[in-house]
Amino acid sequence: MERRTFLSTAAIAAVTAPVLRAAQPDAPLPNTAGLIDTNVYASSWPVRHSWAETPAILAEKLRRHGVVSAWVGSFEGVLHSDIAGVNARLTAACARDGAGRLQPFGTINPTLPDWEDDLRRCAEVHRMPGVRLHPNYHGYTLDDARFVRLIDLAAQRGLLVQIALVLEDDRSQNPALAAPPVQAAPLADVVQNFPTARVMLLNSAPRVLGGNTPLLARLVAAGVRFEIATLEGVAGIQSVLQKMPDIRLCFGSHAPYFYFEAALLKLQESALTADQLAAIRFGNARAALKAGRASARSLLEQPVPDKAG
Fold it and tell me: What is this structure's pTM?
């Protein structure tokens, strides 16, 4: 081993070892309960080679790390205009190669014609638990009337709405694919108008999850959920929970754009109680899907209006 590599490794170990020792007694990893990854993508980002060249490779990698369910969007949905085709291919790939582990989350672009039908297909045809949005690439903001209608319709159908604030670091963007981060500030007011809406922000640090505490407080109060893929710094999860104990935080890796193991390290370097760790690993995500199923059942059980009356 080279001296520089050895010293770097030793320095990292010296910083993280006390935190890891603090976490181990109170928070053993509940591997038997499994792990839910709420931020995964199929296909490849156009300017970045993917270590998961097929959904089968992705599913096997996740299986080896104890993931029992991965919520999978499609990179194709960011740039393609045939959203119905994107969602159909994603569903087929997850069913064919996902080994029951990959759950498709359809893309919705409310700036395109007939996006409401794409949303209907996600719920009725593909039986997806949720949808994933990329407002900065699709050209709308979170106070856009079309977005507000999307939240309303998704809530009626019991669909979880995931919003990716970024896909890649601003500094590494290809100039031809540059997109500014989504501004999350309007979201709190929108969600509060729809009590049954379920919304999760993806890749929200450092602008929200790790930085803007007043905005984070408003979003948490509105019931917005978060995941940890872009959360940086030693004991990052611990820090977030200390300043915002009521936050509904989920595990997310942003794989295969990021290496999956980076997200696992985030769980190990924070001093978390067993309950906190279980909530992040699977509890908060499972509760989000359970709430969606209850909402969908409620919609189906509503009496049909009597047109003759």
Answer: 0.85
